[in-house]
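Worked example

This section walks through a single chain of length 134. The input is the sequence exactly as stored; nothing has been trimmed or padded.
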Amino acid sequence: MKASDVSLILTTTEGHFTVPEVPQLYVQIQAHRAEIEKRLERQISFEDALYSWMENIYQPIMSAILDSFRLQLVSEGKRISEIYFEIYDIAQEDDFKSIDEAVRTYIEKHAVSFLQLLSALIHHRRHVFCGEAI
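Given that input, the structure is written out below as tokens.
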């Protein structure tokens, strides 16, 4: 991977990823590139693959992360890049047919039920009332 590729990836992903995460994104872009080249039966540039990946994979996932209140609730405390990679993995299992479905699956997997939340709050209050450290 060229330094210019690293710089281009970091710039186009708007600072949501760190330099150590770039190789993982590079692999995603190259896999996307291979799929496009297979369909078109010709080679495309890395830059063309990057922009197609941005439009068809990256942006839909990032938009869901930034726009979904439920997603933000179930993933509180995680970095955006962590959530992105987890949703990407789910979407990849379905060949990226439905990013929305991948997001729903992520939310269901990480959602805490109301009863679990209530139980955690009661347990937490019990520790506070008993003088235990939190």
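What to look for: The mean pLDDT is 85.
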